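User: Mind token order:
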Amino acid sequence: MNLSEKLTMIRKKEGYSQEEAAEKLNVTRQTISNWETGQTSPSIEQSISIAKLYKISLDELTDNDIRNVIENKVSNTEKIAGYMMLYIKFIAAVLVVLVIIGISCAIFIK
């Protein structure tokens, strides 16, 4: 069972709606939904709060799979960094083109 399935199962076992769990964990209902659908994962701090809320250990919560949670976070961070680098390269290319156009205009106007 993966973390998202485990989160759903434990929440339902404890009798909480997504809204109630979100309120107790100081997050939005959408955050709970994202965790439970596997779109995102809780941070380590959030995982600790979840474990406390449901009165289970982190090992029980993650099935001793905390390494996968951390690797998933690192992977997501690397993806975001990759997108940021593409954006920066695009902006740099646009600036170079604008400078070339500006120099060209200055030469032809004289």
Summary: The helical segments are 3-14, 18-25, 29-37, 44-53, 58-62, 66-109.
